[in-house]
């Protein structure tokens, strides 16, 4: 009888000890915790409930092929959970009331419970399978990153007045109410199906990213603190007023339907990307802080960059340019320049033509020439009906009227060939390929200047 009583007592004791240990479903999660001496303070092969409750630090178990965080509920006093790049379906943090930061990006999560995390300020839950996130109790939330949840289609942020950064790019969300988020400083809705957005209450907004959405118009007139505005790939947007956004330093409006862009009030602008639009005229003479400028694929006919001495990147290819002035005194700072596919552009005004020819990442059409003063080629042009042909020419240029005192020069002003007699054609077969100016005196005494291309 005594023997049976002893066995019973031992059984109860063992069972009592086991009841004090945290139960885990995933061996990788348990192994991480057991191996953390700040958590496993007694150094055994288990985590006692008392050890879990005593821990007030960060659990960082990222990238450990964990399929379940069962047992996390015992860590009631942790302040930060980092568990990104794992593989579990749900994340129940109902009992983790002290959490301030959670990073569970890229873990396959379809459900997350954070209703009791009242002190939560940062939630990073992007690249998962979430369809819904309830943040109605998380009034302290400042950062919410839920981008790349392709099935996420419902999000109510009206209970998050302290939200400062919100990322929801590449989700299924079609509408947002941000009228209660007056502290918002960063907003990313890129790649969503949102077609309309009211930003009138978000006056503190510094950064707004809305590329590749369904927006047909955008009003940022109240967002006077905007520094970064990215509005590319919104084919339905044809106009954009940034005249009130005087703090802008970065503006990207490429691949839209914009026909007119006024940046004369954006004096702090350092980056302007407006390629693949329908812009016919653009004045950036007041944007003297501009460093990067890309306006390829538009309908520009003239462009003056002579006031933009900080430029290091220029792309103006695929336009209808006839004049281009790059002479800003600091051409040596321009690490990339491209003006190809502008067939009407025969002269590009630069600081030093010889140096420009040797810059490794400067690209132009072969029919265009660098010159210190392209204006010389057109300043004395007399508006007459004189025609030179063929142009481009290979051998002989013909004149529709006789010319005398003929001078042929390149775009740098160097005289290549002269003829003082009155003639109706001139042989240029010995000239190198390039762009030239022919000047002469007509029978009526007018000075005539014409450009031609030698093939």
From TrEMBL:
Coiled coil: none
Signal peptide bounds: 1-19
Every Secretion system C-terminal sorting domain range: 388-453
Top-level taxonomic group: Bacteria
Alphabetical UniProt keywords: Leucine-rich repeat, Repeat, Signal
Pfam families assigned: Por_Secre_tail (PF18962)
InterPro entries: CDIRP, LRR_dom_sf, Secre_tail
Protein name: Por secretion system C-terminal sorting domain-containing protein
Provenance organism: Epilithonimonas mollis
């Amino acid at each position: 009888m005594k023997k049976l009583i002893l066995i019973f007592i031992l059984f109860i004791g063992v069972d009592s000890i086991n009841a004090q240990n945290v139960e885990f479903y995933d061996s990788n999660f348990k192994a991480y915790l057991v191996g953390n001496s700040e958590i496993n303070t007694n150094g055994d092969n288990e985590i006692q409930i008392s050890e879990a409750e005593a821990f007030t630090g960060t659990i960082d178990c990222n990238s450990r092929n964990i399929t379940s965080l069962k047992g996390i509920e015992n860590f009631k006093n942790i302040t930060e959970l980092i568990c990104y790049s794992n593989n579990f379906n749900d994340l129940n943090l109902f009992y983790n009331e002290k959490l301030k930061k959670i990073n569970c990006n890229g873990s396959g999560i379809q459900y997350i419970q954070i209703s009791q995390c009242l002190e939560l300020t940062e939630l990073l839950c992007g690249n998962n399978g979430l369809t819904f996130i309830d943040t109605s109790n998380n009034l302290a939330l400042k950062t919410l990153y839920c981008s790349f949840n392709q099935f996420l289609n419902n999000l109510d942020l009206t209970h998050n007045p302290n939200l400062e950064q919100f990322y929801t790019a590449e989700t299924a969300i079609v509408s947002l109410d941000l009228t209660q988020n007056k502290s918002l400083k960063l907003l990313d809705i890129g790649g969503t199906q949102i077609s309309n957005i009211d930003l009138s209450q978000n006056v503190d907004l510094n950064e707004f990213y809305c590329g590749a959405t369904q927006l047909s118009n955008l009003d940022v007139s109240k967002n006077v603190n905007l520094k970064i505005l990215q509005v590319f790939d919104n084919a339905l947007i044809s106009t954009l007023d940034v005249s009130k956004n005087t703090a802008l330093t970065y503006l990207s409006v490429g691949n839209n339907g914009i026909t007119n862009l006024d940046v004369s009030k954006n004096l702090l602008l350092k980056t302007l990307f407006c390629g693949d639009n329908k812009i016919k005229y653009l004045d950036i003479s007041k944007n003297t802080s501009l460093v990067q400028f890309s306006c390829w694929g538009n309908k520009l006919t003239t462009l003056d960059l002579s006031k933009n001495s900080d430029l290091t990147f220029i792309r103006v290819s695929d336009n209808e340019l006839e004049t281009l002035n790059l002479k800003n005194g600091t051409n040596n700072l321009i690490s990339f320049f491209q003006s190809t596919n502008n067939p009407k552009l025969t002269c590009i005004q630069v600081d030093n033509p010889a140096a420009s020819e040797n810059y490794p990442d400067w690209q132009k059409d072969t029919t265009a020439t660098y010159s210190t003063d392209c204006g010389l080629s057109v300043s004395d042009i007399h508006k007459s009906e004189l025609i030179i042909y063929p142009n481009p020419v290979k051998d002989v240029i013909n004149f529709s009227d006789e010319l005398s005192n003929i001078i042929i020069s390149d775009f740098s002003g160097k005289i290549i060939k002269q003829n003082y007699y009155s003639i109706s054609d001139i042989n240029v077969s010995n000239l190198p390929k390039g762009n030239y100016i022919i000047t002469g005196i007509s029978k009526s005494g007018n000075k005539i200047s014409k450009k031609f291309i030698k093939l």
